[in-house]
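Kindly go through one protein, given below as sequence and tokens. The question is how this chain folds according to its tokens.

***
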Amino acid sequence: MTRTALVTGASSGIGAAVAELLAAHDYRVLGTSRDPGAITTRLPGVEYLPLDLGDYASVEACAAAAGDVDVLVNNAGESQSGPLEELPTDAIERLFRVNVFGAVRLTQLVLPGMRARGYGRVVMVGSMLASFPLAYRSSYVAAKAALKGFATAARREVAPYGVGITTVEPGSIATGIGERRTHYLEDGSPFTAEYRTMIEHLDANERDGVTPAAVADTIFTAISADKPRALYAVGSNAPVVFALRRLAPRGVVERLTARRHGL
């Protein structure tokens, strides 16, 4: 039986790598993009649907067009940085609409069908920053932590129906996302010097990060597992740093996270 996978944000980066991998494993793959017509290089075996996660009508239309979905990979999202006291309220709300509420609504729309058919996999693509919070990334950290919270809490609800919900937390990934990150820093901000230091290190870490294909492999592992774990992590020495997080005092972990980013 051919299973259908819906992968959000499939025009580039992790989403494109996941869509390509699933198509190679004979899934029917539906990839989303805000503007499918603007995609210059289309992946073989991938059908593209329009989706703007910040627009609930678009989310509803995408779910309707997709029909029965066996696998949902909630990958699409935006990146945002800035000192907490300088983040505009509308920017925070926009980030949560796109990174959290849109993904949650799409999940709500596909879960009834998965439950009725007795099979489903939902993967929330989070970030290791949700487990290792970083200064000047508070809104992004909070959004990814919220997404993981929805996934972890809902696992028990749907597990009896053959549906697995899991979170994959990538560390530093070489996707070029730093070029698309939104910055909020006021002129003359007292945080300017430290903020710029953090961004320089963040961008450098991402340039040296794992490939989108490596993250796609981890996502495929979660999809293929008979009983997916609650959390998978990849990149940034994930096995070591998560072990350290369990063993070391919280303050030590926070200082090491800051130091890795020049703070």
Q: What stands out?
A: The chain has a mean pLDDT of 94. DSSP finds eight helices and nine strands in the chain.
